[in-house]
Protein backbone atom coordinates (compact mmCIF):
# COMPACT_ATOMS: atom_id res chain seq x y z
CA UNK A 1 0.00 0.00 0.00
CA UNK A 2 1.25 3.48 -0.82
CA UNK A 3 2.28 5.47 2.22
CA UNK A 4 2.37 8.88 0.48
CA UNK A 5 -0.74 10.96 1.15
CA UNK A 6 -3.05 11.39 -1.82
CA UNK A 7 -5.12 14.54 -2.06
CA UNK A 8 -8.03 12.83 -3.79
CA UNK A 9 -10.30 10.87 -1.49
CA UNK A 10 -11.57 8.19 -3.85
CA UNK A 11 -11.23 6.70 -7.33
CA UNK A 12 -13.90 6.01 -9.93
CA UNK A 13 -13.24 3.31 -12.54
CA UNK A 14 -15.34 4.19 -15.58
CA UNK A 15 -16.26 1.38 -17.95
CA UNK A 16 -18.52 0.21 -20.73
CA UNK A 17 -20.45 -2.30 -18.63
CA UNK A 18 -21.99 -5.64 -19.47
CA UNK A 19 -25.29 -7.39 -18.78
CA UNK A 20 -25.56 -9.23 -15.48
CA UNK A 21 -28.43 -11.23 -14.03
CA UNK A 22 -31.53 -9.19 -13.24
CA UNK A 23 -33.42 -6.34 -14.86
CA UNK A 24 -31.49 -3.10 -15.33
CA UNK A 25 -34.73 -1.20 -14.57
CA UNK A 26 -34.16 1.36 -17.32
CA UNK A 27 -37.35 0.59 -19.18
CA UNK A 28 -40.93 -0.23 -18.23
CA UNK A 29 -41.82 -2.61 -19.71
CA UNK A 30 -38.41 -4.24 -20.03
CA UNK A 31 -37.10 -4.38 -23.61
CA UNK A 32 -35.94 -7.94 -23.10
CA UNK A 33 -39.26 -9.49 -22.07
CA UNK A 34 -39.89 -12.73 -23.92
CA UNK A 35 -36.34 -13.13 -25.19
CA UNK A 36 -34.03 -16.04 -24.41
CA UNK A 37 -31.44 -13.69 -22.92
CA UNK A 38 -33.49 -10.69 -21.77
CA UNK A 39 -30.64 -8.81 -20.10
CA UNK A 40 -28.40 -9.16 -23.15
CA UNK A 41 -31.22 -8.14 -25.47
CA UNK A 42 -31.89 -4.99 -23.47
CA UNK A 43 -28.18 -4.22 -23.21
CA UNK A 44 -27.46 -4.56 -26.92
CA UNK A 45 -30.64 -2.76 -28.00
CA UNK A 46 -29.84 0.25 -25.82
CA UNK A 47 -26.25 0.45 -27.06
CA UNK A 48 -27.20 0.33 -30.73
CA UNK A 49 -30.02 2.83 -30.18
CA UNK A 50 -27.53 5.18 -28.55
CA UNK A 51 -25.14 4.82 -31.46
CA UNK A 52 -27.97 5.70 -33.85
CA UNK A 53 -28.53 8.85 -31.76
CA UNK A 54 -32.28 8.60 -32.23
CA UNK A 55 -32.13 8.97 -36.02
CA UNK A 56 -33.61 5.53 -36.61
CA UNK A 57 -34.31 2.23 -34.92
CA UNK A 58 -31.34 -0.11 -34.43
CA UNK A 59 -30.97 -2.92 -36.94
CA UNK A 60 -32.92 -5.86 -35.44
CA UNK A 61 -30.75 -8.34 -37.32
CA UNK A 62 -27.63 -6.81 -35.79
CA UNK A 63 -29.21 -6.84 -32.34
CA UNK A 64 -30.12 -10.52 -32.68
CA UNK A 65 -26.63 -11.36 -33.97
CA UNK A 66 -24.83 -9.74 -31.04
CA UNK A 67 -27.31 -11.09 -28.48
CA UNK A 68 -26.63 -14.58 -29.85
CA UNK A 69 -22.97 -14.13 -28.89
CA UNK A 70 -23.98 -13.36 -25.31
CA UNK A 71 -26.43 -16.26 -25.28
CA UNK A 72 -23.72 -18.66 -26.37
CA UNK A 73 -21.65 -17.46 -23.40
CA UNK A 74 -24.52 -17.91 -20.94
CA UNK A 75 -26.43 -14.69 -21.57
CA UNK A 76 -24.22 -12.43 -19.46
CA UNK A 77 -20.85 -10.67 -19.45
CA UNK A 78 -18.03 -10.90 -16.89
CA UNK A 79 -17.10 -7.25 -17.52
CA UNK A 80 -18.63 -5.81 -14.35
CA UNK A 81 -17.27 -8.55 -12.10
CA UNK A 82 -13.78 -8.25 -13.56
CA UNK A 83 -13.87 -4.46 -13.18
CA UNK A 84 -14.89 -4.90 -9.54
CA UNK A 85 -11.83 -7.11 -9.04
CA UNK A 86 -9.68 -4.34 -10.50
CA UNK A 87 -11.32 -1.86 -8.13
CA UNK A 88 -10.71 -4.05 -5.09
CA UNK A 89 -7.09 -4.63 -6.01
CA UNK A 90 -6.44 -0.94 -6.65
CA UNK A 91 -8.15 0.03 -3.38
CA UNK A 92 -5.83 -2.31 -1.49
CA UNK A 93 -2.84 -0.81 -3.27
CA UNK A 94 -3.62 2.88 -2.62
CA UNK A 95 -5.61 2.58 0.61
CA UNK A 96 -8.64 4.51 -0.66
CA UNK A 97 -12.17 3.54 -1.74
CA UNK A 98 -12.36 2.64 -5.44
CA UNK A 99 -15.79 2.62 -7.07
CA UNK A 100 -16.99 1.35 -10.45
CA UNK A 101 -19.49 3.15 -12.67
CA UNK A 102 -20.76 1.87 -16.01
CA UNK A 103 -22.12 3.51 -19.13
CA UNK A 104 -24.49 0.74 -20.17
CA UNK A 105 -25.41 -1.37 -17.12
CA UNK A 106 -25.71 -1.39 -13.38
CA UNK A 107 -24.00 0.08 -11.48
CA UNK A 108 -24.76 3.04 -13.77
CA UNK A 109 -22.58 6.11 -13.37
CA UNK A 110 -25.48 8.05 -11.84
CA UNK A 111 -25.98 5.35 -9.20
CA UNK A 112 -22.31 5.19 -8.30
CA UNK A 113 -21.85 8.96 -8.19
CA UNK A 114 -24.93 9.29 -5.98
CA UNK A 115 -23.40 6.75 -3.59
CA UNK A 116 -20.06 8.56 -3.59
CA UNK A 117 -21.73 11.89 -2.83
CA UNK A 118 -23.77 10.37 -0.02
CA UNK A 119 -20.57 8.96 1.49
CA UNK A 120 -18.96 12.39 1.44
CA UNK A 121 -16.38 11.94 -1.31
CA UNK A 122 -15.43 15.31 -2.80
CA UNK A 123 -12.20 14.91 -4.76
CA UNK A 124 -12.35 11.99 -7.16
CA UNK A 125 -9.80 10.60 -9.58
CA UNK A 126 -11.60 9.21 -12.61
CA UNK A 127 -9.90 6.40 -14.55
CA UNK A 128 -11.36 5.66 -17.97
CA UNK A 129 -10.72 1.99 -18.68
CA UNK A 130 -9.64 2.40 -22.28
CA UNK A 131 -6.01 2.55 -23.38
CA UNK A 132 -6.80 4.11 -26.77
CA UNK A 133 -8.61 7.37 -27.25
CA UNK A 134 -11.42 8.33 -29.59
CA UNK A 135 -14.68 10.11 -28.84
CA UNK A 136 -16.63 7.00 -27.81
CA UNK A 137 -13.76 5.53 -25.78
CA UNK A 138 -12.73 8.71 -23.99
CA UNK A 139 -14.56 12.05 -24.32
CA UNK A 140 -17.99 10.44 -24.33
CA UNK A 141 -17.30 8.85 -20.94
CA UNK A 142 -16.54 12.28 -19.54
CA UNK A 143 -19.79 13.53 -21.04
CA UNK A 144 -21.59 10.59 -19.41
CA UNK A 145 -20.18 11.62 -16.03
CA UNK A 146 -21.24 15.24 -16.58
CA UNK A 147 -24.75 14.13 -17.57
CA UNK A 148 -25.01 11.90 -14.51
CA UNK A 149 -23.95 14.76 -12.24
CA UNK A 150 -26.42 17.02 -14.00
CA UNK A 151 -29.26 14.66 -13.22
CA UNK A 152 -28.19 14.44 -9.60
CA UNK A 153 -28.09 18.22 -9.24
CA UNK A 154 -31.37 18.85 -11.07
CA UNK A 155 -33.78 18.39 -8.13
CA UNK A 156 -34.17 21.84 -6.54
CA UNK A 157 -31.00 23.01 -8.30
CA UNK A 158 -28.98 20.99 -5.84
CA UNK A 159 -25.33 22.01 -5.50
CA UNK A 160 -22.94 19.06 -5.67
CA UNK A 161 -19.73 19.37 -3.67
CA UNK A 162 -17.70 16.97 -5.78
CA UNK A 163 -14.94 17.36 -8.36
CA UNK A 164 -13.74 14.70 -10.78
CA UNK A 165 -10.39 14.89 -12.51
CA UNK A 166 -9.31 12.26 -15.01
CA UNK A 167 -6.15 10.26 -15.23
CA UNK A 168 -4.34 11.21 -18.44
CA UNK A 169 -3.92 8.78 -21.29
CA UNK A 170 -1.67 5.85 -20.55
CA UNK A 171 -1.39 3.80 -23.75
CA UNK A 172 2.38 4.29 -24.02
CA UNK A 173 3.24 4.37 -20.32
CA UNK A 174 5.99 1.97 -19.37
CA UNK A 175 3.81 0.33 -16.73
CA UNK A 176 1.08 -0.60 -19.20
CA UNK A 177 3.61 -1.76 -21.80
CA UNK A 178 5.31 -3.96 -19.22
CA UNK A 179 1.98 -5.32 -17.97
CA UNK A 180 1.07 -6.46 -21.48
CA UNK A 181 4.53 -7.89 -22.08
CA UNK A 182 4.34 -9.87 -18.85
CA UNK A 183 0.97 -11.35 -19.88
CA UNK A 184 2.41 -12.54 -23.17
CA UNK A 185 5.51 -14.03 -21.59
CA UNK A 186 3.45 -15.80 -18.91
CA UNK A 187 1.12 -17.29 -21.54
CA UNK A 188 4.07 -18.73 -23.44
CA UNK A 189 6.30 -19.62 -20.49
CA UNK A 190 6.47 -23.31 -21.48
CA UNK A 191 7.37 -22.58 -25.10
CA UNK A 192 10.92 -22.93 -26.33
CA UNK A 193 12.76 -19.77 -27.30
CA UNK A 194 12.68 -20.76 -30.97
CA UNK A 195 8.94 -21.38 -30.88
CA UNK A 196 8.22 -18.03 -29.25
CA UNK A 197 10.54 -16.14 -31.59
CA UNK A 198 9.00 -17.62 -34.75
CA UNK A 199 5.33 -17.41 -33.71
CA UNK A 200 3.08 -14.89 -35.44
CA UNK A 201 2.21 -12.12 -32.95
CA UNK A 202 -1.06 -10.23 -33.51
CA UNK A 203 -2.21 -7.27 -31.48
CA UNK A 204 -5.91 -6.43 -31.66
CA UNK A 205 -8.10 -3.46 -30.79
CA UNK A 206 -11.81 -2.85 -31.27
CA UNK A 207 -12.51 -1.55 -34.76
CA UNK A 208 -13.94 1.95 -35.02
CA UNK A 209 -15.39 3.89 -37.98
CA UNK A 210 -12.64 5.21 -40.22
CA UNK A 211 -13.96 8.74 -39.88
CA UNK A 212 -13.52 8.44 -36.09
CA UNK A 213 -9.99 7.13 -36.55
CA UNK A 214 -9.07 10.14 -38.70
CA UNK A 215 -10.31 12.53 -36.00
CA UNK A 216 -8.60 10.86 -33.04
CA UNK A 217 -5.26 9.38 -31.92
CA UNK A 218 -6.87 5.92 -31.48
CA UNK A 219 -5.13 4.08 -34.33
CA UNK A 220 -1.80 5.80 -33.79
CA UNK A 221 -1.89 4.89 -30.11
CA UNK A 222 -2.77 1.29 -31.00
CA UNK A 223 0.21 1.09 -33.35
CA UNK A 224 2.62 2.75 -30.91
CA UNK A 225 1.62 0.60 -27.93
CA UNK A 226 1.99 -2.55 -30.03
CA UNK A 227 5.39 -1.40 -31.26
CA UNK A 228 6.60 -0.79 -27.70
CA UNK A 229 5.42 -4.19 -26.44
CA UNK A 230 6.91 -5.98 -29.44
CA UNK A 231 10.15 -4.11 -28.78
CA UNK A 232 10.31 -5.52 -25.24
CA UNK A 233 9.74 -8.98 -26.70
CA UNK A 234 12.14 -8.53 -29.58
CA UNK A 235 9.50 -9.70 -32.06
CA UNK A 236 7.87 -8.56 -35.26
CA UNK A 237 4.11 -8.17 -35.11
CA UNK A 238 0.85 -7.58 -36.94
CA UNK A 239 -1.95 -5.14 -36.18
CA UNK A 240 -5.55 -6.28 -36.61
CA UNK A 241 -8.93 -4.94 -35.62
CA UNK A 242 -11.88 -6.92 -34.36
CA UNK A 243 -15.60 -6.78 -33.54
CA UNK A 244 -16.72 -4.49 -36.36
CA UNK A 245 -20.30 -4.93 -37.64
CA UNK A 246 -20.69 -7.37 -40.51
CA UNK A 247 -22.73 -4.83 -42.48
CA UNK A 248 -22.32 -1.09 -42.16
CA UNK A 249 -23.01 1.88 -44.43
CA UNK A 250 -19.62 3.35 -43.45
CA UNK A 251 -16.10 1.82 -43.52
CA UNK A 252 -14.46 0.63 -40.29
CA UNK A 253 -10.77 0.32 -39.48
CA UNK A 254 -8.97 -2.78 -40.68
CA UNK A 255 -7.62 -5.22 -41.44
CA UNK A 256 -10.00 -7.39 -39.47
CA UNK A 257 -8.32 -10.32 -37.75
CA UNK A 258 -10.46 -12.66 -39.86
CA UNK A 259 -8.83 -11.20 -42.97
CA UNK A 260 -5.31 -11.42 -41.56
CA UNK A 261 -5.20 -14.98 -40.22
CA UNK A 262 -5.57 -16.83 -43.58
CA UNK A 263 -2.73 -14.73 -45.02
CA UNK A 264 -0.15 -15.75 -42.41
CA UNK A 265 2.72 -17.91 -43.61
CA UNK A 266 2.57 -21.42 -42.13
CA UNK A 267 6.11 -22.12 -43.33
CA UNK A 268 7.37 -19.56 -40.81
CA UNK A 269 5.26 -20.83 -37.90
CA UNK A 270 1.99 -22.60 -37.23
CA UNK A 271 1.60 -20.69 -33.95
CA UNK A 272 -0.44 -17.51 -33.60
CA UNK A 273 -0.24 -15.40 -30.44
CA UNK A 274 -3.11 -12.94 -30.14
CA UNK A 275 -2.98 -10.14 -27.58
CA UNK A 276 -6.16 -7.99 -27.30
CA UNK A 277 -4.15 -4.95 -26.32
CA UNK A 278 -7.08 -2.58 -26.69
CA UNK A 279 -9.03 -4.25 -23.84
CA UNK A 280 -8.20 -4.30 -20.13
CA UNK A 281 -10.44 -7.21 -19.15
CA UNK A 282 -11.85 -10.30 -20.84
CA UNK A 283 -15.41 -9.58 -21.95
CA UNK A 284 -17.61 -10.69 -24.82
CA UNK A 285 -15.64 -9.06 -27.64
CA UNK A 286 -12.68 -11.10 -26.42
CA UNK A 287 -14.42 -14.28 -25.27
CA UNK A 288 -16.53 -14.69 -28.41
CA UNK A 289 -14.90 -12.75 -31.23
CA UNK A 290 -11.42 -14.04 -30.44
CA UNK A 291 -11.77 -17.21 -28.35
CA UNK A 292 -14.41 -18.68 -30.62
CA UNK A 293 -14.54 -17.06 -34.07
CA UNK A 294 -10.86 -16.19 -34.53
CA UNK A 295 -9.71 -19.41 -32.88
CA UNK A 296 -11.92 -21.55 -35.13
CA UNK A 297 -10.68 -19.69 -38.19
CA UNK A 298 -7.05 -20.16 -37.15
CA UNK A 299 -7.48 -23.89 -36.57
CA UNK A 300 -9.30 -24.27 -39.89
CA UNK A 301 -6.22 -22.75 -41.52
CA UNK A 302 -3.81 -25.11 -39.76
CA UNK A 303 -2.65 -22.84 -36.92
CA UNK A 304 -2.39 -23.26 -33.18
CA UNK A 305 -4.13 -20.27 -31.56
CA UNK A 306 -2.84 -18.79 -28.29
CA UNK A 307 -4.97 -15.95 -26.93
CA UNK A 308 -3.17 -13.96 -24.24
CA UNK A 309 -5.26 -12.84 -21.23
CA UNK A 310 -5.91 -9.13 -20.93
CA UNK A 311 -4.13 -7.28 -18.13
CA UNK A 312 -7.20 -7.45 -15.86
CA UNK A 313 -6.32 -7.30 -12.17
CA UNK A 314 -2.77 -8.54 -12.68
CA UNK A 315 -0.35 -7.29 -10.05
CA UNK A 316 1.74 -5.32 -12.51
CA UNK A 317 -1.24 -3.51 -14.07
CA UNK A 318 -2.75 -2.60 -10.71
CA UNK A 319 0.61 -1.39 -9.43
CA UNK A 320 0.94 0.70 -12.58
CA UNK A 321 -2.49 2.31 -12.03
CA UNK A 322 -1.58 2.99 -8.41
CA UNK A 323 1.75 4.56 -9.30
CA UNK A 324 0.22 6.68 -12.05
CA UNK A 325 -2.51 7.80 -9.65
CA UNK A 326 0.17 9.01 -7.27
CA UNK A 327 2.34 10.63 -9.96
CA UNK A 328 -0.60 12.70 -11.23
CA UNK A 329 -1.83 13.54 -7.73
CA UNK A 330 -0.25 17.00 -7.45
CA UNK A 331 -0.93 17.97 -11.05
CA UNK A 332 -4.68 17.44 -10.62
CA UNK A 333 -5.42 18.29 -7.01
CA UNK A 334 -2.71 20.42 -5.44
CA UNK A 335 -4.54 23.68 -6.18
CA UNK A 336 -7.65 22.38 -4.44
CA UNK A 337 -5.88 21.57 -1.17
Structural topology:
Blueprint lengths: L9 E6 L22 H15 L7 H13 L6 H16 L3 E5 L6 H10 L4 E6 L6 H19 L9 E4 L7 H14 L5 H6 L1 E7 L3 H5 L3 H16 L4 E5 L14 H4 L10 E5 L8 H4 L1 H12 L3 E4 L7 H13 L1 H5 L4
Parallel strand pairs: 1-2, 1-3, 3-4, 5-6, 5-7, 7-8
Helix pairs in contact: 1-2, 3-13, 4-5, 6-9, 6-13
Condensed summary:
This protein is of the alpha/beta class. The chain is built from 14 helices and eight strands.
Report on the architecture of this protein.
The protein is an alpha/beta fold and 337 residues long. It has a domain at 174-307: Rossmann fold (3-Layer(aba) Sandwich). Helix content is 45%, strand content 12%. The chain contains 14 helices and 8 strands. The strands form 2 sheets. A 4-stranded parallel β-sheet has the order 2-1-3-4, with helices on both faces. Helix 5 (135-153) links the parallel strand 3 (123-128) and strand 4 (163-166). Helix 1 packs antiparallel against helix 2 (60-72) and helix 3 (79-94) crosses helix 13 (315-327).
Helix/strand/pairing class, anyone?
alpha/beta
Name the shape in a single word: globular
Number of extended strands? 8
Q: Please state the second-level CATH architecture of the domain at 174-307.
A: 3-Layer(aba) Sandwich
Number of helical segments? 14
Q: Using only CA atoms, what is the Rg?
A: 21 Å
| CATH overall fold name of the domain at 174-307 | Rossmann fold
Strand order of the largest sheet: 2-1-3-4
Quickly name the level 1 CATH class of the domain at 174-307.
Alpha Beta
User: How many strands, what sense, and barrel or not for the largest sheet?
Assistant: 4 strands, parallel
